[in-house]
Task: structure prediction
Amino acid sequence: MAKRNARAGGTPAIVALERAAAPHTVRAYEHDPVSALGYGLEAAVAMGVEPAQVFKTLVADVDGRLVVGVVPVDRQLDLKALARAVGGKRAAMAPPAVAERATGYVVGGISPLGQRHRHPTVVDASAQGFDVVYVSGGRRGLDVGLAPGDLLALTGGALAAIAR
Result:
């Protein structure tokens, strides 16, 4: 069923939300490929949402395993904090091609939901300050809004202070 839904226009992230019956909103906007804002800030501006409420999904290599960090678009991922959050010692950003292969999404559209392979996921603790957070819906120009608790439940994620 998920494959049929994905072919009908839903991304794997949206299919995952629908399959789980998780309350969510879908926010599409026109992605500007020449925007100097970067994918996350572009999304916040296009949707009229505070950047602190829009989260980007980043893939890091922590001691040889891929880990997903989800942080506000106006902040950076603290690699040391991410490593500590998953009991690791060293972390480095995964190369874009590795992140794309592992998640099934393209850079700028990587969603923490519906990834090709499930990876340990850590969401920045600041997400708790919102009723709804926005993450990529699985492609550039598409975000989904959902409760932070649902994001954690659907990703099997943990909360930690991983943004700086």
The longest strand covers residues 55-62. The first helix runs from residue 2 to 7.
